[in-house]
Amino acid sequence: MARVLLTYREYAALPDDGRRYEIHDGELSVTPAPGSTHQVVSSNLNDVLRGHVKRQGRGLVLYAPLDVILSDTTVVQPDLVYLDPARLGLLTERGIEGPPTLVVEILSPSTRLIDRERKLALYARYRVPHYWIVDPAARVLEAYVLGPEGYTLALCAAGDAPVSPPPFVGLALVPAALWPTR
């Protein structure tokens, strides 16, 4: 039996039912809505990144749900996205059409393997320069930079020491400030 590949057109017709739909190389990926820990981390990181970008006056930070259309058969919804000034033209009414400067995925139990393997490979293939994986369970932020052979780990950060993961210079992000207080 031949495999049926979904395109952006079929994807756009999917129901708005609270699930997160994506298509990876034409295959439908469905995950449940994120939990509260995920959303707290997303909100905290969004605040830090937006504040930095606003102070610098350079680029745009956006959060999910927002379609990142990498091809007609690959549409993803990263948790956070950064567009540097040179890529602002990728923003359209449909979403971001092409590779943003940075995508951030915050791991959830249902997305851990997808984010670490499938999406890492997709983002590298579509030439997304920077990929961050934020792991609330381990309380770690990993920043990857795209090179000729794929992604390499540029920074693995935890704790109270401020860091400036690429592509941001002078960000001074404190990883411990991302996690929910107990």
Approximately how much beta-strand content do the residues carry? Answer: 25-35%
DSSP helix fraction: 10-25%
CATH class call: Alpha Beta
Mean pLDDT: 94
Across the major sheet, the strand order is 3-6-8-9-10-11
- Counted beta strands: 11
Q: What's the SSE pattern?
A: HEEHEEEEEEHEEE
CATH fold call? tt1808, chain A
Helical stretch tally:
3
Question: Given the helix and strand composition, which structural class is it?
Answer: alpha+beta
Give structural notes.
Helices cover 22% and strands 30% of the residues. The protein has three helices and eleven strands, in the order αββαββββββαβββ. It has helices at residues 8-12, 36-56, 112-125; strands at 20-24, 27-31, 60-63, 68-71, 74-76, 80-83, 96-97, 102-106, 130-135, 140-147, 150-157. The termini are far apart.
Q: Mind sketching the topology for me?
A:
Elements: H1 8-12, E1 20-24, E2 27-31, H2 36-56, E3 60-63, E4 68-71, E5 74-76, E6 80-83, E7 96-97, E8 102-106, H3 112-125, E9 130-135, E10 140-147, E11 150-157
Parallel strand pairs: 4-7, 8-9
Antiparallel strand pairs: 1-2, 3-6, 4-5, 6-8, 9-10, 10-11
Concise synopsis of the structure shown:
The chain has 182 residues and is of the alpha+beta class. The chain has one domain (34-178): tt1808, chain A (Alpha-Beta Complex).
Key features of this structure:
single chain; 182 residues; alpha+beta; tt1808, chain A; six-stranded mixed β-sheet; three-stranded mixed β-sheet; globular
